[in-house]
Specification:
With 136 residues, the chain is mainly α. It has two domains: 2-60, no CATH class; 62-131, no CATH class. Helix content is 78%, strand content 0%. The chain is built from seven helices and no strands. It has helices spanning 2-19, 23-30, 35-47, 54-78, 83-99, 103-117, 122-131. Helix 1 (2-19) packs across helix 4 (54-78), helix 2 crosses helix 4 (54-78) and helix 4 (54-78) packs across helix 7 (122-131). The longest helix is centred in the middle third of the chain and has 25 residues, at 54-78. The protein starts with a helix and ends in a 5-residue tail after the last helix.
């Protein structure tokens, strides 16, 4: 779990640096999350001897939120929620919220959400299997 967090954190930190995410923007974004959850991530890095930045903590929190939302949305879909409602929610969460700072992620998720709209949740499930195995 820590290795995947470290890889994810490194990627997110790099993207945030490239995007010019200011420290105040990072602090404001971190404030949207549970402080205990953020501290747990910091503690896990320290416990395992990994260095980290607040941007990497934010990146992990965002990724974990996306994983939980995808999982929940697929469960809603399996329970009979309208496909368009689920796709609209995921479009906002995964595409629109990533568009500014993570355009490559937004492009990837746009394809995945479009596939969902056509009736195929396969790539969303695959994303969960690959990236969200350890996210509760």
């Amino acid at each position: 779990m820590v290795a995947s967090r470290a890889r994810g954190a490194a990627l997110v930190a790099m993207v945030l640096v490239i995007a010019g995410c200011a420290p105040n923007a990072t602090a404001a974004a971190l404030a949207e999350f549970d402080p205990d959850e953020a501290q747990e991530i910091r503690d896990s890095f320290e416990r395992d001897g990994w260095s980290y930045s607040e941007e990497s903590v934010l990146g992990i929190l965002v990724m974990e939120r996306e994983c939980r939302e995808i999982r929940s949305s697929l469960a809603d879909l399996a329970s009979g929620a309208p496909l368009d409602d689920v796709a609209d929610h995921l479009d906002d969460l995964l595409v629109e919220q990533n568009r500014l700072h993570h355009p490559n992620s937004a492009e990837y998720f746009q394809v995945v959400v479009d596939e969902l709209r056509s009736g195929s949740p396969t790539n969303l499930q695959e994303y969960l299997d690959i990236n969200c195995e350890n996210v509760q």
